[in-house]
Write a structure and sequence with these properties.
Layout: E1 5-10, H1 16-25, E2 38-40, E3 46-51, H2 56-61, E4 67-71, H3 72-78, E5 83-87, E6 93-100, E7 115-118, H4 121-130, E8 136-139, E9 155-160, H5 164-168, E10 171-180, E11 182-186, H6 192-213, E12 214-222, H7 226-232, E13 240-243, E14 249-257, H8 261-270, E15 274-280
Parallel strand pairs: 1-3, 1-4, 7-8, 7-9
Antiparallel strand pairs: 2-3, 4-11, 5-11, 6-9, 6-10, 12-14, 12-15, 13-14
Bound molecules: adenosine-5'-triphosphate and zinc ion.
């Protein structure tokens, strides 16, 4: 029988789309119809299992799945025999403590002796004990943000991305407990066949990730500026230089990191670069 790597992803929710998108960009064709539990990629030896995200760490520990995609918050909360194989750069959010806006927050000691409602009791407990605070923790599984309003708790600890849910429930964010993004987790070591499939998948994920973080850049510059410009955008090896039909000018092609893109553009302009084009890269293999 053919060896398949079993990859667990969220069945429905905020991680599902990003997970499927990542697989698609890595070249895996996965059908997902609403009610199926698993799907075999048509062109890659992976079987995708669709599960509740909260259950994925357990399934990975039990080797029902070989690897899984969850939020870092769920990975930390579940404390299973899992490790992070790779951070995946999507589903970024933070886990924060929020209190009613009418309260005056005096610092972390404000939480002493209070009641905190959360779906993440383990993470909150760790956070409080790290700060030497003792508080009651009230575990609830959903709609945490209404807890203070109905008198269930003095504070909450929940996921925040924009803060608008907090605002509409009369709450304000007072402590950031952790930042989170989607992560690929694994359990115990894999048999060689499966590890080989995972390595191949990771290679593709790497190509997709670096493509997202980089742009292809083309510009025209006077020949005297080539050296300076090359030092700013060295690219993967070194830039490609092609002469323009206009004497003394060249076209220079390179790759630029998205994070310091704007800063570099300013520098390039100051060196005399013109006609700058920036183009998305689909895959990038170093
Ligand atoms: P259920 O288990 O019932 O499906 P859930 O609250 O665990 O619900 P989601 O709301 O889909 O599931 O969130 C899944 C993960 O996505 C969270 O654990 C977190 O890592 C991340 N996440 C949650 N909310 C956001 C958000 N607003 N922006 C970005 N990422 C988020
Ligand atoms: Zn969940």
């Amino acid at each position: 029988m053919e060896t398949l790597l079993r990859l667990a992803i969220q069945k429905s929710g905020r991680l599902q789309e990003g997970s499927l998108e990542l697989l698609k960009e890595a070249g895996l064709a996965v059908n997902n119809s609403r009610d199926q539990l698993k799907a075999r990629a048509r062109n890659f030896p992976v079987e995708v299992l669709f599960l509740r995200d909260d259950d994925i760490p357990q399934y990975v520990e039990d080797q029902v799945a070989d690897v899984g995609i969850v939020g870092e918050n769920v990975f930390l909360e579940k404390k299973r025999r899992n490790h992070i194989i790779r951070k995946l750069d999507f589903a970024r959010c933070r886990l924060s403590i929020a209190i009613p806006r009418s309260e005056q927050y005096t610092g972390i000691t404000w939480l002493e002796g209070k009641n905190i409602a959360t779906s993440y009791p383990v993470i909150v407990k760790d956070f409080l004990s790290k700060h030497g605070i003792s508080a009651g923790i009230h575990e609830i599984s959903g709609s945490v943000e209404i807890a203070p309003g109905i008198g269930l708790a003095d504070a909450i600890c929940d996921i925040v991305s924009t803060g608008s849910t907090l605002l509409s429930n009369g709450l304000k964010e007072v402590e950031q407990v952790m930042r989170s993004e989607a992560v690929l987790i694994g359990g115990s070591s894999l048999e060689p066949d499966k590890q080989a499939i995972l390595d191949k998948l990771l290679f593709r994920i790497e190509a997709v990730k670096s493509a997202h973080n980089n742009k292809y850049i083309l510009l025209n510059c006077p020949n005297e500026a080539i050296q300076k410009i090359t030092s700013v955008i060295p690219g993967m090896n070194s830039p490609t230089i092609m002469p323009l039909s206009k004497p003394g000018w060249s076209s220079l092609h390179s790759v630029v990191d998205e994070n310091d893109f704007w800063e570099k553009i300013d520098l390039l302009k100051s060196f005399g670069a013109q006609g700058i084009l920036v183009i998305p890269i689909e895959k990038m293999i170093a």
